[in-house]
Amino acid sequence: MSTFWSPPVRELVPYTPGEQPVIPGLVKLNTNENPYPPSPRVIEAIAAAAQDGLQLYPDPQARAFRQAVANHHGLDVGQVFAGNGSDEVLAHAFFAFFRQDRPILMPDISYSFYKVYCGLYGIEATLVPLDADMGIDVAQYQAACGGVVIANPNAPTGSGLPLAQVEQLLRQQPDRVVLVDEAYVDFGGDSAMALINRYPNLLVVQTLSKSRSLAGLRVGFAAGQRHLIEGLERVKDSFNSYPLDRLALAGAVAAYEDSAYFEATRAAVIRSRELLRLQLQELGFEVLPSQANFLMVRHPGHDAATLAADLRAQRILVRHFKLPRIEQYLRISIGTPAQCTALVDACRKLLGA
Ligand code: PMP
């Protein structure tokens, strides 16, 4: 802490990112990246963009990308907002919509950046506990509030909320923004995109980091009715008017052009998840339901922190959260079939199974 820091900065509790090791050859299953590289068309588009035009500023409106997303979801370009990863989009959304007279509502176990943005912007939050099955109980979100944020599928638990329940949330809070963070939705969740033109309070946030294999490029977006997007644009234009650089723009557009690659890789991840679920259950793990590219698992006879450390000693990285209710769980991102096999083999050895 430095005396130069302004008082609010002294109070900040920043996000602790998952480990991004520089050690080669690790089986990295700790931060929910896609195990497959992006489409070759993405690489070609980025190379072409690098050849041409880097001396010029990018399009401050990121129109080509927003248009590609709008076409994909049957929206107008004005209903899409682009940002440097969905983390940035979420930050702008919290600032634009959640600094209200009342606390916002969010699940007690969810993406930990939500709390960080509340701290950053002085937003109060009421944490709503997950139900006994670690799911979101929408009936608990009826109180007068400043807005609602959920992740669907939730993180780090992985379970998805059916669309009818998302609609119930939207109807319960007609005067407040309900932000649905769909970072993992392409792995089997129910997307609320099709509800956008029916609900003026719905903001959907998605990322290209997971199902489009572009965590390294940092591209995310929000979709909603025009008045919400205008709110986000106000914040962006007061902060950084170039949300995407030229390489990110080119790569992100190309990712949407190669839908065959997208479909093939997400299907491969889903297949691996279901196989891994069975294999871990055979080893005695309890596995939470998941519609995401990760599994939350615990072993009744083994301490999660010890298991994570033992796996690390075998060069396999998984995530362990020291948080109430989930401290005995490991979150395992879905890898390639070879990575999943390495994980299962290592677990078998550690458990003596
Ligand atoms: N939302 C959720 C629920 C996440 O798990 C993540 C990734 N850690 C993000 C948003 C942010 O993703 P990105 O900034 O890479 O788009």
TrEMBL record:
Domain Aminotransferase class I/classII large: 26-346
GO molecular function, one term: histidinol-phosphate transaminase activity
InterPro entries reported in the protein's UniProt record: Aminotrans_II_pyridoxalP_BS, Aminotransferase_I/II_large, HisP_aminotrans, PyrdxlP-dep_Trfase, PyrdxlP-dep_Trfase_major, PyrdxlP-dep_Trfase_small
Residue positions, PTM N6-(pyridoxal phosphate)lysine: 210
Keyword Transferase in record: yes
UniProt-listed Enzyme Commission number(s): 2.6.1.9
Keywords: Amino-acid biosynthesis, Aminotransferase, Histidine biosynthesis, Pyridoxal phosphate, Transferase
Gene3D superfamilies reported for this sequence: Aspartate Aminotransferase, domain 1, Type I PLP-dependent aspartate aminotransferase-like (Major domain)
Cofactor: pyridoxal 5'-phosphate
Record field: catalytic activity: L-histidinol phosphate + 2-oxoglutarate = 3-(imidazol-4-yl)-2-oxopropyl phosphate + L-glutamate
Pathway: Amino-acid biosynthesis; L-histidine biosynthesis; L-histidine from 5-phospho-alpha-D-ribose 1-diphosphate: step 7/9
PANTHER family: HISTIDINOL-PHOSPHATE AMINOTRANSFERASE, HISTIDINOL-PHOSPHATE AMINOTRANSFERASE-RELATED
Subunit annotation: Homodimer.
Family to which this protein belongs: Belongs to the class-II pyridoxal-phosphate-dependent aminotransferase family. Histidinol-phosphate aminotransferase subfamily.
Database matches in NCBIfam families: hisC
Name of the molecule in the record: Histidinol-phosphate aminotransferase
Gene: hisC
